[in-house]
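Internal ticket #5521
Category: modeling
Description: The requester needs a full-assembly model to guide mutagenesis choices. All entity lines are attached below as received. Residue total reported by intake: 601.
Assigned to: D.W.
Attached entities:
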Amino acid sequence: MANGPDPYSGLPPAALWRTAVAGTGIFGLSDLWRSRWALPGDARFATFGSCFAQHISRALTARGLTWVDAEPAPGRCPPDLARRFGYGVFSARTGNIYTAAQLLCHARLAAGLADPDVIETWDDRDRHYDSLRPAIEPEGFATAEEARLSRRSAVRAFARAVRLADVLVFTLGLTEGWHSAATGQPYAMCPGTVAGRFDPDRHHFRNAGYQQVRAALEEAIGLLRGLNPGLRVILTVSPVPLTATASGQHVLVATGWSKATLRAVAGDLAASDPGIDYFPSYEIITGAPARSMFFDPNLRTVAEPGVDLVMRHFFAGLDLSAPAAHGGAATRPDSALEAAMAAEDLVCEEEVLGGMAGG
Amino acid sequence: MADGAPELVPELVPDLMILGDSHAVALQVGCVAHGIVPAVLSFSGNLWHHGHVALHRRTGIHVRGRAWHARVTDLGRALGRANVLSAEVPVLACFGFHLGRIVPAFGYNGHQSDPALFLADPESGFASSALVRAYAEAMRAGQLRLLAQLSRRVPTLAVVPPAIYPAGNYPAFVAAIKERIRALGVPLVDPSAELFPGAAMLPQALRSDDGVHGNAAYGQAAIGMMIERGLIRRRTGAEPRA
């Protein structure tokens, strides 16, 4: 048998650590990701997920791309107020979606397979909290009814975001989570931390393994495609480590397990489904070339330069070469509002002048 | 007495001052009808909304824009004093709401604080009472600060505008701003609520043709209610014209 060249000879520089990583350094990395689809030039992106996903919406907006804001803040809302109430952070006011189980819960609600009113509301003296979004209002809701109505509003908006989007960018954050022992409903946070009261009989811990995460994601994406058959999904894994683990392991080890599981699921889904892609934000921040330089002093949160670098790679790999598909602005001009308010000014000014003349 | 104010000459002293936006007109008519002599300073809600009206040490009130401020100096001239504010002249303050400048903007993206209207409109989004309150406070912080400062200088009664507005977010904003005014310690009267307890809206007969303001009958009823409740006083010996 003739000896042919081995599979490693003739590999491109990007395939070799020495040339692709060690030789270039973190800021010389290139071709880390190339979108598997040619998206329309006016592609619409919806973003959800863990806290790292918040950066993606900001970057998309800053680049002038269309970020779907299906639950915008009230008109002329001061930006700090909007942010305090969870507006403009994700494409709907879901708050952080840390786990695949949470995403599945949101998808079921959006698809009409579950009644939003059966989601638990946590009552704490005179304040009320949505167990899917316990931090969405800075001081909770005044009544349980308000919490339920606001959840319905977010469910509507989540469905609208999915319908409007060409691409859903979902950032996986955690495998660890808490759920209702009675109903299986996942919580965004462990009861008793941000809100609610912990009851070990009612609130159970789960560290989802590969199969559970994958099954939940597949079902969730299937339901979202039911709302929008053309929806493409970009999965990312948050590089932000766990704040704390309830697994009994050291938090560093638990973080490794959690991220490895999420990374494996995301990679396998992208490999098996042409409608799913994986973007390596996790590798950019946590990989050896970064030498942990992008973490804040708490070694957890990612500093702005790290976010910038991640987004630079995202936009470098994004292919927006397909013809525009939407034709026109997705937002309404302010002119109608201005005209209405100006008309009222006129009426009021006339009243004042009339009063003067009469008096 | 306000800072630097000279003694008032009794015959030039009005019974009260009405300071506010276009809703001042109905209150003025009501005062006159009840034999109350009002001094009136009213400016478009737009000026209040944009923070163009402020307290001033020398003149009492200052309005940005020469033409607008001329109203203050004209009033001062009529009163025979530079400072139009006086501790002896209570102020009916009908400013701080200016709902037409904030409520349409609040609802522009479909926010609805009324549960029934939210549920009936699948394109709307629910706005919690906390969001309405926070938005109202953010948008009206300057005006309400002015109201609180005014009430520390001169006796002040905040007057809520008449309930003439569409259902939905308006009542929530009125409630939020009223709550804030009370929290600031400023006495407040809501003529619509006092005259027609439990009614969502002012009766048609008391509305002006523009669909926004109370008419003369409203002003008369509102001022009459305030006199009856001892919130304002008629000059001794004065008789109502109506």
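Resolution: model delivered.
Comment from assignee: The first helix of chain A runs from residue 17 to 22.
Ticket closed.
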